[in-house]
Amino acid sequence: MIAVISRKRFRTGWTAFIILFFLLFVILPTVYILSYAVTDWGSIDTYVLNDPEMMEMITNAIIASFEIAGIVTLIDIVVGLPMAWMLVRKDFKGKKFLDTLIDMPLAVPTAALGFSSAIFFAQTDLNVPFALNSITSPLLLIILLHVVFSYPYMVRSLSAILVQIDQTYETAGRTLGASPLAAARTITLPLFRAGLVTGIILCFSRSLSETGGTMIALATMNNVGFATGPTLIGDWKSNLVSNPDLAAPLAFVSILLIILSLILLVVIKLILMKVHLPMGRIWPRPERIFSRGLFPKAKDGLTVFFLVILVLIPSFFIFTYVATATPTSFDWGPFLDSLVYSFLIAGIVTVIDIALGVPMAVYIAKNRTGKISEVLDVLVNVPLIVPTAALGYSLGVFWTGQNLIPTWDVLLIILAHVAFTYPLVVRNVAGAVEEVDPAFEETARTLGAKPIQGFSRVLYPVIKSSILAGAIMAFTRSLGETGATQAVVADAMTAPVYIVTLIRSSDYYVAGLACIVLIIVSYVAMLALRYVTNGRRSN
Amino acid sequence: MPTVKLIGLKKSFDYINAADGLDLEVHDGEYLCLLGPTGAGKTTALRMISGLLTPDEGQILLDGKDCAHLEVEERKAALLSQTYALFPNLTVEDNILFGLNIRGAAAEVKERVLINMLDLVRLSGRSDAFPFELSGGMQQRTALARALASGADLLLLDEPLRALDARLRISLRVELRSLVKTLKMTAIHVTHDHDEALVMADRVAIIRNGRILQVGTPEEIWDNPATPFVANFVGQCNFFTGEVLENEPYTVLRTKDGMLLKGRPSKLPKGSEAVLGVKIGNTDVSKERSGYMSAKVERIIFEGRNLHCDLMMDNGHRLSAKVPSWKRGKVSVGDKVNVSWEETKGAVFPMPAGGLEQELKVE
């Protein structure tokens, strides 16, 4: 066995297979819908461009999507930056506790988050005690919701870079006479760009992509008429059977979302890497005043206040609701079925991701200088940026259009989930492999190890925890996904989709309970992730 | 017991020729040092022999057989890298037994080899330790034991002593060589340290810009360098250029400003341009005795055993001399001294094609 798979021809074949899988099962289906613009321009012309009402609806939804993503990212930067600063540069009691709190929203599936935030912020007739119960604008509600789940990404990306920036620069600046604020602003902030780029891209694409949470929040406030790009896709897809004319608008929205998000990715990268932050000027007096006395304390206080009000309470408000609402009787059956279904899918997706993503990561990391791997490295990011609803719709059209594989619902959902979770595993593992000195494996080979033995005995033990971390991320993302699932199979009954259905039929109490179950399951997975990654750090 | 033969190896990375027609023969059981400056292509040569790199052109013969089709693990050539690459997740014992475990060796065999190896590298008490718990020297010995125990019969050592502190480096030289000799292995040891190469090698191969300049015993390399570069690389030299007047019984060189300098007999045609190189350790300064030229002492550096003197000749050129420390007080800064050397210590070379400066340039 080992002898067979160690042959050069087999190895070349395996590499080719891995790359082919990535291109055919991940990249091609993700962007396949773009070809619709070429092959079926006529129907887009008829059903979209010549239908002013439709056109207006689409334009409004797309503009709303980008508007929300932009504002959310801005808010994240404003409230996330002081938080990242505090976590990295300051020492205080309860810092560890605060650090854990930041990640909490990540453990809550966005479907549950959508419901939880909506009953806290929005004006509803549920009469939950302590709820703000005041927001009536759907746009504002969605912005607040998206801040809740994108905030941790921003804080994490910023603090990851901040840790690496040597504090002695700032100290040197201060010994040369700069006030703390001036030193931080003119010296450290400009070094920040890489973290800012990552944070902005992560937050923007997560917000642009969000479907389930948005749908649930909108349904909770009984909204009619307001939609974002992804919710349009979700809604239309479920009406597609009764109204086949929606195929063209669906394709059009997906194409717009895909193209605009990719363009935006490039633009953000270019702008942020090229443009210097215009911060050279110094205002000695005011900056000294702002560096002293009450101001720093007020800043830290406000930072924590925002974390609590904007992020933590909305995330977990659902517990208040379930604890105080009058219980209604219901049938657990369908929900448990959907939970099992979700688990099954997430499990299989994770296995596929690991089996085919790890070799891909190893290939990319080891052939850094090669042209092919450079291209693959860029392509891997595409499914991360493309909104999952657009990805799901594109993938569904691709696979049902070809007669290559059977079009069972489960299979299509699995393929869709693989497409957007695969990059998570590849990113994580490739990063880990790159940090491992290639001398380990080379030495193993010269000591007589075949390539597969070199991997299993030398490389694998070192990157094991990263593989596990990638697996858990893929698992929880798959478990919480709504947009892609709905866009590929309209009536799929995964747990998050089931929760959307419950809320739309106003079964709020049941939905609340279901959300809590989902939160607990994800939270356990999250704990496992922390345990694993902490183990890695202490090694 | 292998022999290694490299025939016309070529390898380039983006316009840099790391191997440019490399020819080299290593005998069975020989300890060969591949000596050259940084970027000369030493590591590239080693990686091509191990199979980690494929040459663009040329042949590698192991035991007389072309090994182009042989995979890394089939070459029985164990690589010991600069950083040792001890597997961090394995103990000393498991590191040493790595090769045998891969092959699924019997328990008794492993037991015996392990005890032998631990004994050989004096790590018997530390077999359960993890690499990060060991000192640099212990890590080095573990890596060596692992390579020796793998059943390889060719040992490829890539600057194996580089990461150690100076004292340990010197004591391990002898130890490493005698271990390899005891086990009758063939070893190719890459280094940029000429002292290390001279002390350890049976033969030294000097490499530069992907070509072998000279192969020979340490004595041959030291006494009869093939080019001015070799002469300067294994021990710093003073160089003079001039016209050949005589070539028997000594070579006599007349410099541009008329100095007559003597070196070993040669076959250089009279009247041709030539280079004379004298190691600074063989350059003597004296106030009493006469010499080839006179010079002013500009600076004296006390190095413990020796004095390093920087001199300025009357014609404005600089040269250096290394004299025993007991001469301290006999020469001092500002003195006018006479510079001399024994005729047999002056190596004579034809003028290099690109000029002397080009020839001596490192990199």
Summarize the entry for a quick read.
The complex is a heterodimer of chains A (539) and B (363). Helix content of chain A is 80%, strand content 0%.
Structural class of chain A: mainly alpha
> Given the structure, what is the number of helices of chain B?
10
- Beta-strand portion of chain B reads 25-35%
Oligomer: heterodimer
User: How big a fraction of the residues of chain A is strand?
Assistant: under 5%
Do you know the CATH architecture of the largest domain in chain B?
A: 3-Layer(aba) Sandwich
Low-pLDDT segments of chain A: none
Can you identify the CATH class of the largest domain in chain B?
Alpha Beta
**Second rung of CATH, namely the architecture of the largest domain in chain A:** Orthogonal Bundle
According to CATH, the fold-level topology of the largest domain in chain A is: MetI-like fold
Low-confidence stretches of chain B: none
Overall pLDDT of chain B, averaged? 89
What is the element string of chain B, with H for helices and E for strands? EEEHEEEHHHHEHEHEEHHEEEEEEEEEEH
Number of domains of chain A: 2
> Structural class from helices and strands of chain B?
alpha+beta
Report the CATH C-level class of the largest domain in chain A: Mainly Alpha
Major sheet size, sense and barrel closure of chain A: none
Task: Estimate percent helicity of chain B.
Answer: 10-25%
How many individual β-strands of chain B?
20
